[in-house]
Design goal:
66 residues; mainly alpha
Length: 66
């Protein structure tokens, strides 16, 4: 068990894991379709990038700092 507080908890609440799972479900990684418009591809990529950033921060906060 880590003695360091989760730095995302004040921003996102105490139940971060369930929030991240919900975000990953709502914004899954997808491959663009050749007929899809570039703005749509970029928008979806941006949504997914936020989820991946939060996941990375969450995982980093859970690692013990020795």
């Amino acid at each position: 068990m880590s003695t360091y507080p989760n730095t995302l908890e004040p921003l996102l609440g105490p139940n971060l894991e369930s929030l991240l799972l919900e975000l990953e479900d709502k914004f899954p990684p997808t491959n663009p379709h050749p007929k899809e418009q570039l703005p749509s591809i970029m928008y979806r990529a941006g949504q997914r990038d936020v989820v991946e950033y939060l996941r990375k921060r969450f995982d980093e906060d859970r690692k013990p700092n020795y």
